[in-house]
Specification:
This protein is mostly helical and 233 residues long. The protein is built from eight helices and two strands. Bound molecules: protoporphyrin IX containing FE. Protoporphyrin IX containing FE (HEM) binds next to helix 1, helix 4, helix 6 and helix 7.
Length: 233
């Protein structure tokens, strides 16, 4: 999908659309869902019904983000933040480039991929978990008892601790960047960043939003289908 340039070489700084609306909605829905998942897991009892529903919502969100990483706005595409180890070393040595400030910088990109992978592992292990009391994931019937036990153990211990660590680092990084004058949170709300040098903008118009809506519906349908597998036999 083509990207539009909305930057002017004459204005300083350059206001550039970085995060398209679908990416922003994905992010804030994901953050709210993960917090609600932790709360409902700690509450237990009937709140676990909500935990299961929210788990499927996060599954739909992750499927959507995987698709959007292929066809979304320029700075949301995986290709724009798939950095080489050399680029990571360069960034860590302080040799930054103007494009580092546009989308996810090399270090931020690493944390995004780690967070998406750990979230996916947490959701998949949840689908394979069984508390042996009242709740069992829809995919438990397809694997051995040993696999269910391993998935349940990962979901309730390592998986959740890894997730807390990554979210904690995510928030800490945002505070550090804020102290250095980089307003990353504002950009995740408005979509725009103020950049010193012009960069191509992410396309974020009615057509791309319609495409995102279609992909969101497909993702929701896929998550719903997986949920139904639990009672299909
Ligand atoms: C459970 C809580 C959270 C999770 C799981 C989470 C997850 C993520 C993920 C996956 C991304 C990558 C977005 C993408 O490219 O699709 C991201 C980016 C971002 N998140 Fe969060 N987030 C959480 C909470 C927050 C909170 C509370 C804030 C603000 C106070 C925040 C601010 C941001 C910002 C500013 C970025 C863009 C960072 C950059 O410019 O590279 N997040 N987050």
């Amino acid at each position: 999908m083509a990207d539009t340039k909305i930057t002017s070489p004459h204005s300083q700084p350059h206001c550039v659309r970085i995060w398209d609306l679908p990416t922003r909605l994905f992010h804030w829905l994901l953050a709210a869902s993960v917090i609600a998942l932790v709360v409902t897991a700690k509450m237990g009892g009937n709140a676990m019904n909500w935990h299961l529903q929210l788990g499927h919502l996060v599954l739909a969100l992750l499927i959507f983000r995987l698709l959007w990483g292929l066809v979304g706005g320029r700075w949301s595409r995986f290709a724009s933040f798939l950095h080489s180890p050399a680029a990571m070393l360069r960034y860590l040595r302080g040799q930054t480039r103007s494009s580092d400030d546009a989308g996810h910088n090399p270090l931020g990109a690493l944390s995004v991929f780690a967070m998406l992978a750990v979230l996916l592992a947490q959701v998949v292990s949840g689908l394979l978990s069984d508390d042996e009391i009242a709740f069992s994931g829809p995919l438990t019937r397809f694997v051995s008892g040993d696999s269910v036990a391993q998935a349940t153990s990962y979901h309730a211990s390592w998986g959740q601790y890894l997730l807390y660590t990554l979210v904690g680092l995510h928030l800490l990084a945002l505070v550090v960047y804020a102290l250095r004058g980089k307003r990353l949170v504002a950009a995740m709300i408005t979509g725009d960043k103020q950049l010193q040098q012009a960069q191509p903008a992410s396309r974020d118009d009615a057509r791309t939003r319609l495409l995102a809506l279609v992909l969101a519906l497909v993702s929701g349908a896929a998550a719903w289908w997986i949920q139904q597998l639990g009672g299909a036999f």
